[in-house]
Amino acid sequence: MQTSYLLVFLVTIILGGASQWYVTKTIREYSNVPSTSGWSGVQAANAMMARYGIGRLPVHQGHENEDHFDPRTNSITLDPHAYGASSVTAVATACHEVGHACQFAEGYSMMKIRAALVPAVNFTQRTWILLVLAGVFFGITGLAWLGIIFYACAVLFHVVTLPVEFDASRRGLAYMTETGALSGDVIGAQKVLRACALTYVAAALISVIELMYWVQYVRE
Questions:
Q1: Which listed site, 20, 72, 76, 145, has its alpha carbon 20 to 30 Å from 59?
Q2: Is 179 left (phi over 0), alpha (psi -120 to 50) or beta?
């Protein structure tokens, strides 16, 4: 068990570390490339919202690396660089987050599924490993399998997140492509959003690998 778990641990560390290195490198690179439009992230976000008629949603300046759309408040938060800077990274990030706002406005099905999974994931991610280990230690197979089922909820969440993120990037890039002021930034924006998507792919892959490991471990 120790050897196989060490192998899984190393694989996940490598995957996670490599994806994070690549996204950091790409974001930093295009943070130094000025947007051809001269727009800041917040300006790009407001322009995209106006174009797609979803209303002028609040766009807040958050902390470092805090970029997200919050469906609870129907608002967007951008980190200080994405909010105020006029760079390819800033514009790409802002348009991606507005892509999520567009999903929410039209009731995008995969976003609804992901939102429905959040309460279950919040509960199961704190308890699954305890159930698995307790089941194995006390020889209660059913308890161990319940822990596996709990962890599978987290895996499903990671998998469902992929189409949500890919679609938000697709929407953002489509807007940039059809908007003359931003069309010159599309190639760089594609690289930035592709790098960011890699982190979600890595997270999903890591969760699947770990799930397979624990399924095999309980079976033995």
A1: 20
A2: beta
Output the CA torsion 100→101→104→109 (10° steps). -20
**Active site (annotated) includes residue 97:** yes
Task: Tell me how far apart the alpha carbons of residues 28 and 174 are, in angstroms, rounded to a whole number.
Answer: 23
Tokens of 164: 């949500």
For residue 85, pLDDT beyond 80: yes
DSSP 100-165: HHHHHHHT-HHHHHHHHHHHHHHHHTTTHHHHHHHHHHHT-HHHHHHHHHHHHHHHHHHHHHHHHH
Query: What's the rounded Cα separation, in Å, for the pair 88 and 202?
Result: 24
**Quick one: pLDDT at residue 34?**
96
Catalytic residue among 66, 97, 178, 210: 97
Residue 1 has pLDDT above 60, yes or no: no
Q: For residue range 115-169, what is the model confidence (pLDDT) as tens digits? A: 999 999 999 988 999 999 999 889 899 999 999 999 999 999 999 999 999 999 9
